[in-house]
Amino acid sequence: MMKLIDLGFDPWFEAHVDDVRHDLRQEDQGIARVSAVDRNSCMIRNELREIPAELAGKFSFHVESPVNLPCVGDWVTVQYHVEPMVILAKTDLIPPDELQQKLAAIRQASITTRVIALSNITGSGFDEFQQVLMPVM
């Protein structure tokens, strides 16, 4: 497993990380290095992998100049999150029109998260589900 030191997190950064450690109390927060930037998004690298990231709305709206935005090589504090979603399993046990009715009912209930309908028989939905679990980098 890669360590932050392998990405250039040297003793100087380690000595100064206490300045931001109070912000890193939650499990879903950490430190990562910006590896690519493209318009309003970027790729960040931590000890485990490279993942896409976006600036927090609060931060992006208070930036006075693009010069203040993160660029490649910058260290950033990040908050990781899990995307909520609804998984409908065993959808092969009902007719396609009934599945469509159930999907419509979910949307009519104002559920706006991603909905993935899975069928073990046909394999329908598994590509999308696998992509959610392990995004291709």
What features would you describe in this structure?
By secondary structure, this protein is an alpha+beta fold. The protein folds into two domains: 4-79, OB fold (Dihydrolipoamide Acetyltransferase, E2P) (Beta Barrel); 85-132, no CATH class. The chain is 27% helix and 24% strand. It is built from five helices and six strands. The strands form two sheets. A four-stranded antiparallel sheet has the order 3-2-1-4, with no helix packed on it. Strands 5-6 form a two-stranded parallel sheet. Strand 5 (85-88), helix 4 (96-108) and strand 6 form a beta-alpha-beta unit. The two termini are 17 Å apart. The mean pLDDT is 82.
Largest sheet: 4 strands, antiparallel
Q: Work out the helicity level.
A: 25-40%
Give the amount of beta strand, in percent. Answer: 15-25%
CATH topology of the largest domain: OB fold (Dihydrolipoamide Acetyltransferase, E2P)
- Give the tally of structural domains: 2
Shape: elongated
Calculate the terminal CA-CA distance, rounded to whole Å.
17 Å
- Strand arrangement, major sheet: 3-2-1-4
Instruction: Identify the CATH architecture of the largest domain.
Output: Beta Barrel
Low-pLDDT segments: none
Using only C-alpha atoms, the radius of gyration works out to: 20 Å
Tally of helical segments? 5
Mean pLDDT: 82
The counted number of beta strands is 6
